[in-house]
Q: What sequence folds into this?
């Protein structure tokens, strides 16, 4: 059991952050904070006192634990509706506006995750993605930041990485680079099955894209499906992909591309 004094201190801190999160519409973090209450075994009589004032009245004390139980059970990510300006990174008509914003918010330091340009690093990355959800370089930078911090919700981020992928797809469902970036993220995160799923989706959207074929080949190699990895590697190099990594890996595994 947690001592009474410690419980009160924990609740006070959680309540403070929960109010702040809800005011900033960080619904995912607010939900996670409520989950902490459950994990601490404090989600009983004190819930009403601490949660009801900051939870819309439509959410009864019965609905809150039900939603939490669902979230914890299926590990769901609740994504709010995208309400930004919706510039499509692949649309030439939008690129002039995007390029102008890049000069301020997506500098080389931001792209390489060295430091922010106008504030915190995550703020500049999110500014670009709020403007253009399928901004390829900004989305890739966010995945690398998530990997660096070991979480899909990097420090000070307003929205989960999974929601960023969803918004990017909604802006332009035919943009093959979005599932490429998503697949590459899962590959680097050590989840080759998930990587394969998104890279195969990208391959259907852009079957001749060397970037798509190379990354799909990498995922298949990681899964030890060397024969199919070789098929996509050949397609990638035939399309002019410059990096020799996959070629060398397959050769060492006994699947040279020359055969």
A:
């Amino acid at each position: 059991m947690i001592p009474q004094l410690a419980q009160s201190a924990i609740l006070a801190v959680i309540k403070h952050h929960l109010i702040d999160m809800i005011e900033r519409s960080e619904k995912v973090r607010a939900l996670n904070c409520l989950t902490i209450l459950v994990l601490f075994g404090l989600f009983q009589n004190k819930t009403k006192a601490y949660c009801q004032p900051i939870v819309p009245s439509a959410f009864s004390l019965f609905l809150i634990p039900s939603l939490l139980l669902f979230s914890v059970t299926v590990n769901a990510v609740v994504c709010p509706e995208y309400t930004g300006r919706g510039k499509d990174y692949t649309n030439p008509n939008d690129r002039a506006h995007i390029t102008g914003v890049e000069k301020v918010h997506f500098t080389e330091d931001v792209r390489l995750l060295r430091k922010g340009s106008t504030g915190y690093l995550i703020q500049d990355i999110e500014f670009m993605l709020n403007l253009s959800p399928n901004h390829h370089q900004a989305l890739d930078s966010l995945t690398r930041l998530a990997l660096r911090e070991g979480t899909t919700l990097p420090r000070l981020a307003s929205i989960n990485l999974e929601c960023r992928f969803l918004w990017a797809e909604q802006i332009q469902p035919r943009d093959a680079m979005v599932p490429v970036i998503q697949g590459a993220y899962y590959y680097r995160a050590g989840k080759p099955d998930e990587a394969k799923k998104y890279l195969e989706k990208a391959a259907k959207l852009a079957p001749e894209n060397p970037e798509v074929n190379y990354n799909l080949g990498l995922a298949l190699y990681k899964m030890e499906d060397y024969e199919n990895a070789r098929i996509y590697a050949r397609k990638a190099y035939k399309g002019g992909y410059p990096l020799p990594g996959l070629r060398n890996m397959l050769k060492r595994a006994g699947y040279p591309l020359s055969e």
Summary: Confidence is low (pLDDT under 50) at residues 21-27, 36-75. The chain is about 65% helix and 0% strand. The CA atoms of residues 210 and 241 lie 6 Å apart. The first helix runs from residue 4 to 23.
